[in-house]
TrEMBL record:
Subcellular location, principal: membrane
Localization per Swiss-Prot or TrEMBL: Membrane
Family: Belongs to the cytochrome b family.
Protein name in the entry: Menaquinol:cytochrome c reductase cytochrome c subunit
Assembly mode: The main subunits of the menaquinol:cytochrome c complex are a Rieske-type iron-sulfur protein (QcrA), a cytochrome b (QcrB) and a cytochrome c (QcrC).
Record SUPFAM superfamilies: a domain/subunit of cytochrome bc1 complex (Ubiquinol-cytochrome c reductase), Cytochrome c
UniProt KW keywords: Electron transport, Heme, Iron, Membrane, Metal-binding, Transmembrane, Transmembrane helix, Transport
Species per Swiss-Prot/TrEMBL record: Aeribacillus pallidus
Stored PANTHER family: CYTOCHROME C-553-LIKE, MENAQUINOL-CYTOCHROME C REDUCTASE CYTOCHROME B_C SUBUNIT
Transmembrane segments: none
Membrane topology: Multi-pass membrane protein
Cited function: Component of the menaquinol:cytochrome c reductase complex.
Length: 255
């Protein structure tokens, strides 16, 4: 048999004979269906994000967030309340199974399980379908989470005394108090600080005395006879001390 007779050489057209550098795919073959991630898609995402960011900044300038008075750790009657987007967690901590000795369950365990389920959702349901009824696991988990958040938020709003909350958080006028004056020393000695605060700013048990608009005679009368929740006979000093105290309280202004 002669050399080479009966033999055939087969080449694979899928293997390029020449090494070529990595060339990005020509997306013009699929108009309107796909595009390059960089820079086309990413640039669009940045532009949309910038529009929302600018809009949010304009909203904060047009409607500033309502501020409350400076936090007072000695005011035990103050009701702390989180922002609206955390009200569902605030409501969760009111239930017996998630509060008291079980606070860890309400503050860490339940939210941790919820966020873990959210992170695992893409792995629990890996189907290619986009229709909701064909992805029951992911859709069911999301609907359950949304329904829980809406219900707990609604319950928190319904069971919160908003008028009391607004009154407690109201920014009250402050005044520069001469702590070395005789009137202030009598104010301290008579125990007025415990109800009206060391700067006369008021507290849970007593109103603010700044800009009270009372005359010395009216202040003296209230100190002796009481008013509202303030019982009579609280002042135990002399008439001279009462006069000094009344003049001091009536002169306290925020100007």
């Amino acid at each position: 048999m002669h050399r080479g007779k009966g033999m055939k050489f087969v080449g694979d057209s899928r293997v390029s004979a020449e090494r070529k550098p990595n060339i990005p795919k020509d997306y013009s073959e699929y108009p309107g269906k796909t595009e390059a991630f960089w820079p086309n898609f990413l640039l669009k995402e940045w532009l949309v994000g910038a529009v929302f960011l600018i809009g949010f900044l304009c909203l904060t300038v047009a409607h500033p967030s309502p501020l409350e008075r400076v936090a007072d750790p000695t005011d035990t009657g103050y009701i702390p309340l989180p922002d609206w987007y955390f009200l569902f967690l605030y409501q969760l901590l009111k239930y017996s199974y998630a509060s008291g000795p079980y606070t860890v369950i309400g503050a860490i365990v339940i939210p941790g399980l919820a966020f873990s389920a959210l992170l695992l959702a893409p792995f629990l349901d890996r189907g290619p379908e986009r229709r909701p009824h064909k992805r029951p696991v992911a859709v069911g988990m999301m609907l359950l989470a949304v329904a829980s958040i809406v219900y707990l938020t609604w319950e928190s709003v319904e069971h919160t005394d908003w008028e009391l909350k607004e009154e407690q958080g109201k920014i009250k006028a402050e005044a520069k108090i001469d702590t070395n004056s005789e009137g202030y020393k009598i104010f301290q000695e008579q125990g007025c600080v415990s109800c009206h605060g060391d700067n006369l700013q008021g507290g849970a048990a007593g109103p603010s005395l700044v800009d009270n608009g009372l005359s010395p005679e009216e202040v003296a009368k209230i100190a002796k006879e009481g008013v509202g929740s303030m019982p009579p006979g609280i002042f135990k000093g002399t008439d001279e001390e009462l006069k000094v105290l009344a003049e001091f309280v009536s002169s306290v202004t925020s100007k």
